[in-house]
Amino acid sequence: IGCADEGACSGLLCELKRKEEARMRRAQSDAYPWWKVAGRTIATIGNSTITGAGAGAAAGGYGAAAGAVAGFVVGEIDVFTDESLTTGASLRTDVAAQFSQIDFGQATDQWSSQFGSINLAGLQAGGAEGYLDSLSDSAGAIAKGLQDVKNALRTTSLSDKDVEEKLDAIKAKDPAFNKLIDEVVALNVEKEAFNQQLAAAMQQIAELSNAMTNNVLAIDAMNQDASELSRGFNPRVMMYIKDMETRALARLRKYHYYMAKAYEYRLLQTYTQDLNVQAIMDQIISMASSDTGTEGILPPDKFDALKVVYENQLKNLAEDILNDFLNGHTERNVTTYYTLTEDECAQLNAQTPLTINFFARGLFPSSRENIRIVNMRVSDIDVSVSGDCGSFAQLIMSMQHPSVSRIQWKDNIYVFRHLAQDTKEPLDIKWESEYNAVTDVTQDVGVSASQQSLLWSLLATGSRPNALIYSRPGAWADISITRTDNWDWDGCLDCDCRMDIESLTLELSYDYFDKEDTFRTLRVAAEPKALSPGWPGNLAPSFQVDTLDVSGRKDGTGDFYRIYPPTSMVQVTAPATFGYWRFDRWINKQTGITTSDPTRTITFTSTPRNDPSVYAQYIYEGPILNVADFNLDYGVDFTDFHSLAAAWMTTPYDEEWDSAYDISTPADDVIDFFDLQVFCENWLEDAL
Question: Which terminus, N or C, of the chain has the lesser number of Cβ atoms within 10 Å?
Answer without folding.
Answer: C
